UniProtKB/TrEMBL annotation:
Residues 147-443 form the FAD/NAD(P)-binding domain. PANTHER family: GLUTAMATE SYNTHASE [NADPH] SMALL CHAIN, GLUTAMATE SYNTHASE [NADPH] SMALL CHAIN-RELATED. It comes from Candidatus Desulfobia pelagia. One of its GO terms (molecular function) is oxidoreductase activity. This is NAD(P)-dependent oxidoreductase. Residues 22-131 form the Dihydroprymidine dehydrogenase domain. It holds the Pfam family Fer4_20. It comes from the Bacteria.
Length: 470
């Protein structure tokens, strides 16, 4: 096919569940491409000599090659091409903010629509599952040094994946009853079905990775005990950022105030939580959008979001904003809560202020400034502040760790070794709340460092590591 013909193919659109049906359940909203649609979309790729899409991908997936294999109907080979760099293709293809990563860097996006790289990756990953293919490459014979992994999120899963493939017996310690970190207790199932996480989990277990749920490191066992009493030779700490940031308003502990990731964790762990008719969500990122869409699905009728900037500044992905608006959630731009009003300890109204955009920083992001006297009131049965998350430091209790002023762990950016030589860390606990793909990348980097540490080799020699902390 000539380049001109490829250019003439429009970006293929996935089928989606109708709004009236989907807001009543947690079924996956976006369907996978069928074979012919996937091939048509793959034909849009220009196979650039300098594939900028790869640079845009935090884990450097070989995008042109897997698309070329897909195009030739070599689906299994295409999947294993992705697996060379990614431990979680079925997850990343669904949740990565592609427009800011690979698709944002796609040459075709300069004059039209980027190639739907995420959907093509998903097609290959789902094809493997549908056809019942083995997702695990061969495992190595067990070595005599053991690694403890704290946290079963994408960073911990990836570290375990790579270390297990090197033959290092790994045990993942997870404080919650569920496995997968924010993939299971944050991101709702209508975006990431739990069967996908379970399939990855089974693949890990097949390679001998042990998982101990309901073990809180720092309480039930300390990091030092893992080393001194349980015989682990190195530890990877991938505890994420699970502490919801507060608004800092009076009465923030009253009934009807539920903080973003706490709310999602409760729903995702199976609690039946109907928040009432009117729900206000505060924030402009994916967490805020997930809270709003989840509230709709658990029975609230009038859900809206307060965001203190404009749509242009919203950090959430465009697809998420589109789905949110389709589902009838209103976004009140340039507005922020200023006071919570309750009766008998229960929230009744949220007092808000209008904002306007003031000075902009070097990146073009403008500071919201209060419009004095612009107070207005919203009736609310519940408010969900979803403005960010911090690292919970339970895991490092009793261990002298160096942390930044934001509370994230200080690590060597090339090796992810902490100030305690046998402890490594990566993912949200180092980067702050970020993305699954960045956690996957750091899990992989840490695994390589841990391997070298256990072998007594140089942690840095001959390595090229992306600094995601920039
Ligand atoms: C609602 C929501 C939506 C998101 N949407 C997206 C998206 O669309 N795309 C995207 O790329 N990213 C998204 N993210 C971000 C992404 O999920 C995270 O960046 C990623 O999961 C971080 O991986 P991690 O392994 O570092 O930590 P986590 O996934 O947070 O996993 C950490 C694990 O450590 C466990 N843990 C914590 N403390 C202890 C302890 N003391 N002992 C034992 N275990 C412990 C936790 O229970 C958790 O299971 C979203 C996050 C949230 C909250």
């Amino acid at each position: 096919m000539k380049a001109k013909e490829r250019m003439a193919i429009p970006r293929q659109q996935p089928q989606e569940l109708g709004v009236a049906f989907r807001i009543k359940n947690f079924e996956e909203v976006t369907a996978c491409f069928d074979e012919e649609t996937a091939i048509r979309e793959a034909n849009r790729c220009l196979q650039c000599k300098k594939p900028t899409c790869r640079q845009g991908c935090p884990i450097n997936n070989n995008i042109p090659e897997f698309i070329a294999l897909l195009r030739d109907r070599k689906f299994e080979e295409g999947y294993w091409k992705i697996r060379e760099t990614s431990s979680l293709p079925a997850v990343c293809s669904r949740v990565c903010p592609h427009e800011f990563q690979c698709e944002g860097a796609c040459v075709r996006g300069k004059k039209g629509d980027a190639v739907a790289i995420g959907m093509l990756e998903r097609f290959l990953a789902d094809w493997m599952v549908t056809k019942g293919k083995n997702l695990m490459s061969s495992c190595a014979l067990p070595k005599d040094k053991m690694v403890a992994i704290i946290g079963s999120g994408p960073a911990g899963m990836t570290a375990a994946f790579h270390l297990a493939h090197e033959g290092y017996p790994c045990t993942i310690f997870e404080s919650l009853p569920a496995f997968g970190g924010m993939l299971s207790v944050g991101i709702p199932a209508y975006r990431l079905p739990r069967a996908i996480i379970n399939a990855e989990f089974d693949a890990l277990k097949n390679c001998g990775v042990q998982v101990e749920n309901n073990v809180v490191i720092g309480k039930d066992l300390t990091l030092q005990q893992l080393k001194d009493e349980k015989g682990f030779d190195a530890v990877f700490v991938g505890v994420g950022a699970h502490k919801s940031r507060k608004l800092g308003l009076d009465n923030e502990d009253m009934k009807g105030v539920l903080h973003g990731v706490d709310y999602l964790r409760r729903v995702n762990l199976g609690e039946n939580l109907n928040l009432g008719h009117n729900v206000v969500v505060v924030g402009g990122g994916n967490v805020a959008i997930d809270c709003a869409r989840t509230a709709l699905r658990t029975g609230s009728q009038n859900v809206f979001i307060l965001y203190r900037r404009t749509k242009k500044e919203m950090p959430a992905s465009m697809a998420e904003i589109h789905h949110l608006e389709e589902e009838g959630v209103t976004i009140e731009f340039l507005a922020a809560p200023v006071q919570l009003h309750g009766e008998n300890g229960t929230l009744k109204r949220v007092e808000c202020l209008r904002m306007e955009l003031g000075e902009c920083d070097a990146s073009g992001r403008c500071r919201p400034v209060v419009v004095e006297g612009s107070n207005f009131m919203i009736e609310a049965d519940a408010i969900i502040p979803a403005i960010s998350q911090d690292v919970d430091h339970t895991a490092d209790s009793g261990t002298e760790f160096e942390v930044t002023r934001w509370g994230t762990y200080i690590v060597d950016p090339e090796t992810l070794q902490t100030s305690v030589p046998w402890i490594f860390s990566g993912g949200d606990s180092v980067l702050g709340p970020q993305t699954a793909a960045k956690a996957v990348y750091q899990g992989k980097v840490a695994a390589e460092s841990i391997k070298r540490f256990l072998e007594g080799a140089s942690l840095k020699e001959g390595r090229e590591v992306r600094d995601l902390m920039e």
